[in-house]
Design a protein that fits this description.
The structure is a single chain. The radius of gyration is 23 Å and the shape is elongated. The chain is built from 6 helices and 7 strands; from the N terminus they run ααααββββββαβα. The protein has helices at 8-22, 29-36, 39-42, 44-56, 154-160, 178-181; strands at residues 76-81, 87-99, 102-110, 119-126, 132-142, 145-151, 171-177. Strands 1-2-3-6-5-4-7 form a 7-stranded mixed beta barrel. 21% of the residues are buried. The protein has one domain (43-181).
Length: 182
């Protein structure tokens, strides 16, 4: 009981009733489904344009031989950073490991990346078919280095499990800053 003769239970029930009355109405099911759709389904023309641009990006391996730091890391992966104006860059895969249905990946962004972003939503686009195969969040760890941990479908797990960090990767990246995603 409080000093005014009201029990804590009554006070909590009153507060719950007030919170329910003040809460906005629940979103309609159609709106919830719309928000759950991946971005490439919401904006298919934008995805198509970005995937085409990504597919036109040429890989240049020659410069890697001149920099001894690059010799230990994997092949560059074309990356398109989706800012107001899309920026072409490359992601050098530093760590790639598939185990127990999870992908653990670390990459370093190279090229004119603009200001560093703390987090990217990474859309993995298949190298051949230019279709999205995976989406995951990558968090900045040091400078332009990012890491991600994502659950894989059984098909992706089977096809990516034999890959090593030094192998050419079967995907390209579309990187969307998390601030632009919400």
């Amino acid at each position: 009981m409080t000093s005014r003769g009201v029990s804590i239970e009554q006070l909590l029930r009153w507060r719950l009733a007030r919170a329910e009355a003040d809460a906005p109405p629940a979103p309609r099911a159609a709106r919830l489904l719309e928000r759950a759709r991946p971005w490439w389904e919401v904006w298919p023309e934008r995805f198509r344009a970005q995937a085409e641009r990504l597919g036109r990006m040429q890989l240049a391996y020659g410069y890697a031989a001149t920099d001894p730091r690059q010799a230990r890391s994997g092949h560059p992966v074309p990356a398109l950073i989706a800012h107001a104006e899309d920026v072409e860059a490359f992601a050098r895969v530093l760590y790639f490991h598939v185990r127990d249905g999870r992908l653990r990946l670390r990459f370093h962004l190279e090229g004119p990346t603009g200001r560093p972003e703390p987090t990217f939503e990474v859309t993995f686009v298949s190298d051949g078919a230019a279709r999205p195969v995976l989406i995951a969040n990558a968090t900045q760890s040091v400078d332009a280095e990012y890491r991600l941990d994502a659950e894989l479908s059984p098909d992706l797990e089977r096809s990516w499990e034999p890959l090593r960090v030094t192998d050419p990767m079967p995907f390209r990246f579309i990187l969307r800053p998390i601030a632009a995603v919400s």
